[in-house]
Amino acid sequence: VDPGAIGPDGLREKDVTLKVAKAIRDALLASGRVRVALTRSDDRFLVLRERYGVARRLKGDLFISVHCDSTGSEGASGATAYTLSEVASDKEAARLAARENKADVISGVNLGEAPADVSSILIDLTQRETMNASATFARLLGREAKPLMPLKPNFHRMASLMVLKAPDMPSILFETGYISNPQDAAFLDSDEGRQRIAESVTRAVTVHFARRMVAR
Q1: Among the four residues 41, 44, 198, 209, which has the most C-beta atoms within 10 Å?
Q2: What is the pLDDT of residues 52-62, one digit of tens each?
């Protein structure tokens, strides 16, 4: 989880996202249908590859990276889901990718660099299937979240985000709102807001895995 942004009332992104992630975990566990693991449960830093690496080691079937965004304008608001694409879907998606992909760089040192032979095979046929599954889940999340929380009109966007590059596991980055927007910040910092986000994800995950069972 990106340790950076701070909202107008002193909200820190890493604190908000951890609370949201725990609410999602609790709701999913309460459903009794899935196993859930957090990449972090306290205030620690994980490089981008380690974040999805945790999920891969646990043989995860779905990876959801929970974030909240921040801009210099209070006008930006609403949640967004990002899936992997080598080309950004719009300027805002490109901006977010540039910001999120810098999370490994500390004092000019890239902590998450991988060997060239690994980097060169990120996009293969398996990953393209995974990208399609990720996009399907993002659209499903948008459908389930729409009655429960503020969304951007173009909820599903695409960007070249390092944290989504697991080649064999559907993955999304869920920007749950803007801590730079007072209304979004209040929603994210409230128990009700986090419960609504968690319910949205739980509904989407339930449908996602139900569809998989039918397809088998």
Answers
A1: 198
A2: 667 777 788 99
